[in-house]
Amino acid sequence: MSSGQQAAGRGQELAIQVRDVHKVYRRYGRRKQFATLKSALLSGSVLRDLRPDAVFEALKGVSFDVAKGKTFGIVGRNGSGKSTMLKLIAGIGKPTSGAVRVDGRVSALIELGAGFHPEISGRENVYINGLMLGLSRREIAGRFADIVRFAELEEFIDAPVKTYSSGMYMRLGFAVAINVDPDVLLVDEVLAVGDESFTHKCLDKFAEFRRRGRTVLLVTHSLDLVTRFCDEALWLDGGVAKAQGDPRRVIDAYLMDVAGAENVQLAADDTTANSQPNPESRIPLDSARGKPGPDPRDMFQAAEGRWGSREAEITAVEMVGAAAQPAHLFQSGERVEIRLHVRANQRVSDFAFGVGIFNTEGVCCYGTNTQIDGGIAGEFVGEGLVVFAIDELDLVDGTYKLDVAVHRQDGVPYDYHRLLYTFRVKSPRKDVGIFRPPHRWSFSGGIRMSGL
Amino acid sequence: MLDSLRHLFKYRALISSLVARELKARYRGSALGFVWSFVNPLLLLLIYTFVFTIVLPAAHPPELQPFSLFLFCGILPWTWFSSSLLESSNVLIASGNLIKKVLFPAEVLPIVTVLAGLVHFCLGLPILALFLIYYRVPVSPTDLLWFPLIVLIQLVLTTGLALLVSALTVHFRDVRDLLANLLTLWFFATPIIYPITQAPERVRRLLNLNPFTHLAIAYQEVLFKPGPFAQVTRLLAVAAASVVVFVVGYFVFDRLRDTFAEEV
């Protein structure tokens, strides 16, 4: 727990207290699923079959507090335990150990309109849903007009719910849940499903909640929402609280970790590319050998793979960023080196090295080789290192793939690696396109602008 | 468990709304609508009457007249009992989405099933009354006072079993199939289509262990048999047994409650 958290806990009343919560899900094996009570009774194995085959610990000792009136965000990857945590706070399910305490009425927006019956009217469903969420009949009657207005369903409220569009269904579900007017509102990613205007409406409603001093707990993948709305954030990873506190700091830590994991993932992809050359490489190899050289346009069409006659070979490819370490993730504008470890299996004098960068749609962002750049081949014997340095990697945020090759000057490949290497470019700016030319804005006349 | 029961009491408005929804939704889209609640027991009765008075007239003692009324006294409560249990066995799984996503006491669901069955049972009573009037069967008003008590005992028994069955089905899906066959056996082990006096002594002792035997006989005593109500002690015994069943059923349900959200 952060020190700020404790201070908040002392100074204010707590809406939610979570203390060392563990949640273990039992998984039963296939045998159990298809076994029957009868067979279990006959073989006397009832007790044994009731024992789980495997256990999965979704939460491994999570503790946090949410002070009253705060908006609290939980972020984390899929399967990190976020939704489990939310369900425990909502009271759907109990922690295996530890304690969850919630002060006040809770309403959980976990699935909108869960429990609507398709055959009966929206009006009746509102009543039943409201009762289910803990309202009394009189309370629902008092809020009914608000609910219908919020859902924008004045005309259709007496039609059976099965005739509703999915948007209408969701709006009604949200309207009921939000009008329960809970002290603690739990929201699980429901904003991801609405259209733009509905999402705005929901956000307005949350803002109203905050103004009225209600507590909101938000589980979401929308990090933007967390930084904008939350007073505090928690990052769950593999059932453990990794960071907690100021949302911006928590989100940054989370993003760093996600980026690191992507790096590892991309590296793993490259290892497979390096160690297992495409087994079908012989086919293009043979066909390429007889031809005078691939039409340059072919370069833009071929699928990923590796081919060539292998008089000379590229044995390894690394990308090195500003950190002087092989990496797969770079900041836009970073200095990047593409390093080719090469080996000539026999002495060659007719050779060129080439590099191409493609985006995920297969558009060639840039391609060149030593010959295009005016290099004149002398001799290539034994091993060597080729470094292609880019002073500023001026690409926009996105994933890119790399072509590298060593080939004859007429284009016939010795060793061609087609789209085998992937790297990511990160950028804080959300500009669009592929290439970011170094640029600046300037203004004159009656224009005033700052921040550029 | 007492806490759970008290908590449940707060949800009575939900239970009544859900029962109303159940009844409304059931006949939504059918031409006859609510009329089916009357027609269904009537048709069932006609079929049984046809089989036992025209196809198999010798299957029951001739002095048991009118036999269709005798059948009705047993079949109407049995239909409530068996359909409630069959539906309960599926109700938690069918509402899995609700149990996983919304916080409310899950026992509401089997209870609603049983209560909806009770409403259908009550809707069948006017038909039964018509039969009584048609056959000019004298029903003593003092006997009739027992009727609500018998219904109440059956309600407690059915609810207890419904809770048990619904909770167990979540863990053992085959309870459903087991139950369907068990109910067929149970039907024949209850003196509904035959008078208990017709069963041999040995079998009768077994039948007496069946709580529904005494409920069926009680219904027959009140509505069919002339003479004062002679089932009092047995009925009280069944009442005690029903309370035990209810407590056991609710206890099992309560114990398994926390596993529902993970297992359905």
Write the layout of secondary structure elements.
The complex is a heterodimer of chains A (452) and B (264).
Chain A: H1 3-11, E1 14-27, H2 30-34, H3 37-42, H4 46-50, E2 54-67, E3 71-75, H5 82-90, E4 97-102, E5 106-109, H6 122-132, H7 137-151, H8 166-179, E6 184-188, H9 196-211, E7 215-219, H10 223-229, E8 232-237, E9 240-245, H11 247-275, H12 282-290, E10 305-307, E11 312-320, E12 329-331, E13 336-348, E14 352-359, E15 364-369, E16 380-390, E17 398-407, E18 413-426
Parallel strand pairs in A: 3-7, 3-8, 5-6, 6-7, 12-18
Antiparallel strand pairs in A: 1-2, 1-4, 8-9, 10-18, 11-13, 13-16, 14-15, 14-17, 17-18
Helix pairs in contact in A: 6-7, 6-8, 7-8
Chain B: H1 2-9, H2 12-27, H3 35-55, H4 67-94, H5 96-101, H6 108-134, H7 141-171, H8 175-188, H9 201-207, H10 211-223, H11 232-263
Helix pairs in contact in B: 2-6, 3-4, 3-6, 4-6, 4-7, 4-8, 4-10, 6-7, 7-10, 7-11, 10-11
